[in-house]
């Protein structure tokens, strides 16, 4: 998937999740209370990163209607006390819900079921943490559809929510949360992750806006496709925790092997290019041209140095360079780790 939708809040709270988003997605959408909503970030680096990939996502009426139907089914179930605002056992602190994200009839339904409290001064309504997390997860499903990944930095809170729901969680609309911020570091462990700080990631993503940025973007998409493939196998495996650990170990080994094979292929290509006939002829031509200018007796290299030898030599070297670059691009496009390889090899990583 090329884009991700963040929930449950209107702003991202995790720098690590932002770094993951910069590594993976074209854009990171946040569910907003009105079109064009922008949040202010105190950290200038986070603000710059969000300016680069952050997009406000105001729910369409269709998404709100779909969410209303699903929330109606959800609240009709026998829910535990922490979901109800009037219950003394409810979670603390409460959760401020923007009413504009839902249909008015959805808020009225939540009031009737005693899941919504009074409105705050900033126009948000109070719900319990459990209720807020639940309805925002449902809304996120409706907004993301099948074309966007759902991501959150509230994994622990959602794990607690799943525990509260018990057996209901299996057939509820609270789908399993994919921990991209835990999966992506598996690939980063294969290279040196310490150089990939937030400033570096922002600068590297900016390169995609350059004239040749499409090549970097293509490598990023191939990297994401491999991660999505692993996520699919991980979520579809109905096994134990040890099974998931084993799958992650295999994934890390696969990424190590892919990077090693990539380096071997590039090394062999460089060696083959350096020893090619055209490269040798071009080198001899350069030596001959320089010798003709510096030595009292001209150095004769038949069929190599002519009156226009220097120009021909430059043209030959350009052909060698272009052929090498074409081959290099072809090699890179075969390897999902090529994106991180190019990132780590970037001059930006040396700053």
Task: Provide a descriptive summary of the structure in words.
This protein has 351 residues and is of the alpha/beta class. It folds into 2 domains: 177 residues, no CATH class; 163 residues, no CATH class. It is built from 13 helices and 7 strands. It has a 4-stranded parallel sheet, with helices on both faces. A 3-stranded antiparallel sheet has the order 4-6-5. Strand 1, helix 1 and strand 2 form a beta-alpha-beta unit. Helix 2 runs parallel beside helix 8 and helix 3 crosses helix 5.
In short:
With 351 residues, the chain is α/β, with parallel strands linked by helices.
Which strands sit side by side, in order, in the main sheet?
3-2-1-7
Helix-strand topology string: EHEHEHEHEEHEHHHHHHHH
First-to-last CA distance: 31 Å
The dominant shape is elongated
Structural class by SSE content? alpha/beta
Q: Uncertain runs with pLDDT below 50, 5 residues or more?
A: 299-312
Q: Which range best describes the helical content: under 10%, 10-25%, 25-40%, 40-55%, 55-70% or over 70%?
A: 55-70%
* Major sheet characteristics: 4 strands, parallel
**Mind telling me the C-alpha Rg?**
28 Å
Which quaternary structure do these chains form? single chain
User: What is the count of DSSP helices, taking H or I runs of 4+ residues?
Assistant: 13
Number of domains: 2
Strand content: 5-15%
Mean pLDDT, nearest integer?
A: 80
Number of strands: 7
């Amino acid at each position: 998937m090329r884009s991700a939708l963040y929930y449950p809040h209107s702003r991202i709270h995790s720098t690590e999740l932002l770094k993951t988003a910069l590594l993976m997605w074209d854009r990171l959408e946040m569910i907003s209370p009105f079109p064009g909503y922008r949040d202010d970030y105190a950290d200038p680096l986070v603000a710059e990163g969000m300016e680069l990939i952050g997009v406000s996502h105001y729910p369409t009426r269709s998404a709100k209607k779909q969410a209303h139907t699903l929330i109606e089914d959800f609240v009709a179930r026998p829910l535990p006390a922490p979901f109800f605002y009037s219950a003394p056992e409810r979670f603390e602190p409460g959760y401020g819900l923007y009413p504009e994200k839902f249909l008015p009839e959805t808020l009225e339904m939540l009031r009737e079921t005693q899941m919504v409290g009074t409105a705050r001064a900033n126009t948000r309504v109070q719900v319990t943490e459990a209720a807020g997390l639940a309805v925002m997860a449902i809304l996120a499903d409706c907004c993301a559809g099948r074309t966007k990944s759902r991501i959150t930095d509230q994994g622990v809170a959602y794990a607690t929510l799943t525990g509260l729901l018990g057996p209901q969680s299996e057939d509820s609309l609270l789908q399993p949360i994919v921990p991209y911020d835990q999966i992506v570091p598996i690939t980063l462990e294969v290279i040196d992750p310490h150089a990939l700080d937030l400033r570096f990631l922002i600068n590297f993503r900016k390169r995609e806006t350059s004239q040749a940025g499409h090549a970097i973007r293509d490598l990023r998409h191939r990297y994401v496709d491999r991660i999505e493939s692993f996520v699919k196998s991980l979520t579809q495996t109905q096994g134990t925790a040890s099974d998931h650990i084993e799958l992650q170990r295999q994934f890390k080994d696969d990424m190590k092997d892919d990077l090693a094979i990539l380096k071997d292929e590039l090394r062999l290509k460089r060696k083959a290019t350096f020893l090619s006939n055209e490269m040798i002829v071009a080198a001899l031509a350069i030596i001959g041209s320089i010798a003709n200018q510096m030595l009292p007796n001209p150095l004769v290299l038949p069929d190599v140095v002519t009156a226009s030898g220097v120009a021909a030599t430059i043209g030959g070297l350009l052909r060698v360079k272009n052929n090498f670059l074409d081959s290099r691009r072809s090699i890179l496009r075969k390897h999902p780790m090529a994106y991180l390889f190019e990132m780590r090899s970037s001059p930006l990583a040396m700053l």
